[in-house]
Design brief:
Nucleotidyltransferase, domain 5; 5-stranded mixed β-sheet; homodimer; 3 domains; about 45% helix; Arc Repressor Mutant, subunit A; alpha/beta; Sugar kinase of the NBD/HSP70 family, may contain an N-terminal HTH domain (chains A, B)
């Protein structure tokens, strides 16, 4: 009963027929790019079918994209033994990319993706302290290095997007409040801009969980999944919600703040001052407390989680019990979110993604016991394939988004 | 940071320029009607400003709507002592209406609204039993009576929409599962159609909480509120969620199923077999149990709630304590929903709407104690002005929706 793209009613076009035609043509150019990004190479006939456009229109659009240097056509090759030689349209690989940077309390990571979602660059650094000055200097260095490396490799960076926890003003680039960093009112974009050379690509910011959801959607879209929920597992726990492929931000911009939903354990104190919060039960610190090892160095969570996964595989009872506790708590909150949002898929990211069925069994059991719709209402629950890199990947996708929305405008900006 | 209507990107138009122009003109006709519905009478200059359209375009659209008999222009009158005489465009009042019918476990209600949202008809009946045959016969009679009364009054019914609790297939008109009615797999639309005369208006069905949200949006839209949450208070508890003016259904159609979210009271058994559910704490039966009166006749909930409100006003300690318990539980779930969805307003409907500040004080207190964003993230919490009539009103709005989407197609269907 979902509306398909073709059912979407035609909205008011305010600025007259000429503007409308130009806007439609530009949007169609973007849709051709998006289709190639989702499905890989495509013949012009397939593109026409995918997009419901006349073949003549597709031919014109493809010519224009070739001129913009965003796609190319392969030489005619025979797909099989019979039939006409088939020429395919392909995205031009590494000429353009988007740079995403995730800032967390213990470090930052830069990921660059090209138009085909291939990783051109992936570099992580650790912080000793997460005060704004330290982090801004380190992240500016990370961006500068990435721009240098990518430039040397012949890839033009279309934009930079920063993923950060907490609440932020995307228009001004200011972090309003980010509990995991201990930040309030930090002018992130301005602070990075003044530490970087002039004429760098535009810098945007967005919430880490939302960008994690964007990264998952780049995969899920090809499966026909347009409504999904991404749950971050780190020092904080947040959700990124996509409804019909769009980020749900909410009227006041706080949507997805699931870290302090009550899980019904009144004895479990949360650093926020309340009791029984989601974060107090399932944040990475709660998991590590439950494992009850000697204190760990949280600056290399990837290695730490890889080690703990190996211990789970080997049947370590402390690790398995801790995963049972986390999975139960996570299942209760995921069940709530399924009742409220009825997504097609729930994807568990961050440290959750390291534990596969060790965790999913408990999560699914708790969902099944609580969610009102049988079999979780047909919603699929799985772990992310991106580990801790999801938000940075989603940020890189977002940095590339302009080229899929209006490639002409994007290329015009570049040539200035 | 919300996108305004003017920011919405122009989508792909698949069927060529001619279709596109027709679709845009028809959509614009609907937007003129919607603007008049939201703001009341409007001069052509005001319409042009509201919609961002050239005055010449508005003039053409108004002429066409006059021809369709949907609007008329007043005689030129002087708005004040100075200035040019002002001619205004008005919706033609009662010539067309939508009929909404809510089915609940104890009775049904029919409400007809005209294009200006004025109530043309409001009639409620009670059931002794809620088995499908009894209800279908009674509801068919209710609809037949309404069509007769409205026809005699010269108002043409554009459509009939049924509001019912639970899960349903809107395409086939089948109720899949409705716990408050004890129904599963009831072919509601087919059952009504076969009990009604031929050539009645089209009958649609939708979920009661979602239609309650639609009724609230008819008011909230004029306040600039486009993201809201409506919570039903009756034998069941559900939520209708509007995101940017659109109903959030979720990929699997279960969105808003909040009745069995856990509120953290493991000792409180719910008829669903789980413990501590929202419904076990705040459904009308839980409230009445807490008041601890002798058993009430639930078939006239309106009178019962009016009486209980009077007792609350008079300081009856049992009623006030019960409202404290309900308000606390409701506040916890509303706080959760605010964290997840970040709406601009939460509106408490059904029996909740009878108790104003007696209830709201407790709800707001619990939200403030739990929701992560201070001051509930700027979200307003209030009671509905529609009492138990919200879902039927929302159903009537939905029955009228076609005329605001494409008035030409709607009038063409009528003349067949």
């Amino acid at each position: 009963m979902r509306m398909t793209r073709a059912d979407v009613p035609v909205p008011l076009v305010r600025s007259g027929e000429v503007a409308s035609r130009t806007a439609i043509r530009r949007a169609n150019l973007g849709l051709v790019l998006r289709d190639l990004n989702t499905h890989g190479s495509r013949s012009q006939t397939q593109l026409a079918e995918d997009l419901g456009l006349p073949k003549a229109t597709v031919s014109t659009l493809v010519s224009e994209l070739i001129e913009l240097d965003l796609v190319y056509q392969t030489d005619a090759t025979r797909a099989g033994a019979v039939g006409r030689p088939r020429q395919t349209v392909e995205l031009r690989g590494t000429a353009f990319c988007g740079l995403g940077v995730e800032i967390a309390a213990t470090g930052a990571r830069a990921v660059a993706l090209d138009l085909r979602d291939d990783v051109l660059h992936d570099h992580a650094i650790a912080f000793d302290r997460a005060d704004p000055d330290t982090v801004l200097a380190a992240v500016a260095g990370l961006i500068d290095d990435a721009l240098t490396v990518l430039g040397a490799a012949g890839s033009q960076v279309l934009g930079v997007t920063i993923a950060a926890p907490g609440q932020m003003d995307r228009d001004t680039g200011v972090i309003r409040f980010a509990a995991p960093l201990g930040w309030s009112e930090v002018a992130l974009v301005a602070g990075l801009t003044e530490r970087l050379p002039a004429n760098i690509p535009p810098i945007l910011i967005d919430n880490d969980a939302r960008l994690g959801a964007v990264a998952e959607y780049a995969v899920a879209r090809a499966e026909g999944i347009h409504d999904l929920l991404y749950v971050t597992g780190g020092l904080g726990v947040g959700a990124g919600i996509l409804v019909d492929g769009q980020i749900l931000r909410g009227a006041m911009g706080f949507a997805g703040e699931i870290g302090h939903l009550p899980l019904g354990n009144p004895d479990l104190a949360c650093p926020c001052g309340r009791n029984g919060c989601v974060e107090a039960t399932v944040a990475v610190t709660a998991f590590l407390d439950a494992v009850a090892d000697p204190p760990h160095d949280l600056r290399d969570l990837e290695q730490l989680m890889t080690d703990l996964r190996a211990r789970a595989d080997a049947g370590d009872p402390a690790v398995l019990a801790a995963l049972g506790m986390v999975g139960q708590g996570l299942g209760v909150v995921v069940g709530m979110l399924i009742d409220v949002l009825s997504p097609r898929a729930v994807i568990l990211g961050g440290y959750f993604s390291y534990f596969g069925d060790h965790l999913l069994t408990h999560v699914r059991g708790a969902v099944e016991a609580r969610a009102i719709a049988g079999q979780a209402g047909g919603c699929e629950i799985r772990t992310s394939g991106f580990g801790f890199t999801g938000p940075a990947r989603g940020a890189a996708h977002t940095a590339l988004e302009a080229v899929f929305t209006d490639p002409v405008a994007c290329m015009e900006r570049l040539s200035k």
